[in-house]
Amino acid sequence: MKTTNTTSYDVMDIQGGAPVKMWTQGVPVEEAARQQLTNTAKMPFVYKHIAVMPDVHLGKGSTIGTVVPTLDAVIPAAVGVDIGCGMMAAKTTLTANDLPDSLSTLRSAIERAIPHGMSPKTRGHRGRDEGSWQTPPSAVDAAWLQLKDEFDAICLKTPSLKNTNNYRHLGTLGSGNHFVEVCLDEVGFVWFMLHSGSRGVGNAIGTHFIELAKKDMRTHFVNLPDSDLAYLSEGTQHYDDYVEAVSWAQKFARTNREVMMQNLIAAVRLVIKKPFETHVEAVNCHHNYVQKERHFGKDVLVTRKGAVSARTGELGIIPGSMGAKSFIVRGKGNEDSFHSCSHGAGRTMSRTEAKRRFTLADQVRATEGVECRKDANVIDEIPMAYKDIDAVMHAQRDLVEVVHTLKQVVCVKG
After folding, report:
1. Which of 81, 90, 269, 332 could disulfide-pair with 206, CB 3.0 to 4.6 Å?
2. What pTM was estimated for this model as a whole?
């Protein structure tokens, strides 16, 4: 493995594999992530090169913060199980002066309006997920009708998906790094921002096809540098079924964010009586997904695992952490990155390590000025567990330009 330097990115030359172009100057990259990138680059169907974003870190099968272009094959684990996970943000006509003196009132209203988290007592047990709807509201009913027929057709081919928590998860947040925030931009306008994906049904689809791909590899005696790089070949039934299911899951994820945004706006209107408009500027973008795109004169399948599309003029969202800035960005259409940018700051340590290293007092200090949970169960999301967002943004200055800088004042996590 040899690394060479260019003006804005480094290149890892992989013996027996595609080059790896890395927009990581000035940010740490763990050795395990470099090895994972090497493994992925050796897959024979990688097109041109792999593009690595500054938030890159170790993932399952493929690194998070990576763009993998392929010909005639797809790696389900590179897409992951939170299919279509992404961000949505909307600017409002409210300003900082319109926010209530007690931000806890606003946070409580949002928490009532959007199911979030998952009760420990339900993990691994049958019964309703506490982060799902008991009785879904009319907005969920209307949205589900737009998704139901296609899902029923998918279930005819994959019956095991039928009993997943889909309808009751539509319009819900989840847990981990998913969040809902009220933010202020650089001139004091209020923004609503949220982060979530395809929830339980996306997890079920991803898990099912990852296992199918592994089974196919065993059946055909395909040796891989990592079993999670198991792939589906174009022209096979499993490939066709996966493309259909993953496309639907991405629609579900986008709709999930739209329904949450509706409920978020309605919740804020209950607290702030002043009339206001939303979606003055709005962005809804995936950062865990796969789709056909044209690059370097060829139609290829582009998998973005923790990366955002950044075509020329396209708006995207790059969040920091629950104590750091976030950015609304405009893409520069950099072809070497396959028109991509980072999906966030990127973790510097595992959740287990963050809980071992930091205390509740550290969490309270790091989120000072933000109305949010300050308890032991969110220490794994402490800002210090993430890379410096300013360094991450500088490393990708050739990929995007900053349009707005946001700072959260309310953060809801599962």
Report:
1. 81
2. 0.95
